[in-house]
Amino acid sequence: MSSSMGLRVAGGVALVFGALTLFSGGAALFGGKDMGAVVHFVLWFNFLAGFAYMVAGWGLWAGRRYARPLSLAVFLASLGVGAALAFHIAGGGAYEMRTLGAMSLRILIWAVLALVALRVLPRG
Question: What is the pLDDT of residues 85-101, one digit of tens each?
Fold first, then answer.
């Protein structure tokens, strides 16, 4: 797979993931449904990060240099929130298993997207 094709695939994944994140996060925050034991800082982070996912996704798709540090920042921020979630759970805080699963998936996806960005996009 060529570098430009890899960036387009990565960008497409980030854009779709960002759109889904904004939709699901918005529904959870503003939809008025009972979501169970919501961990509010995780929910707000994920919703707001959805905008960064979209910007990073477009940057990856278009091969823009800014996507390199932004993808890494999204990954590191997700890792930090994941660690905070782990501390929340270890301290006996209420949570849903889907929150743990979703956060783990986000970390994994952004680890791969950041790696693609770091390997393919130039520094700058």
Answer: 999 999 999 999 999 99
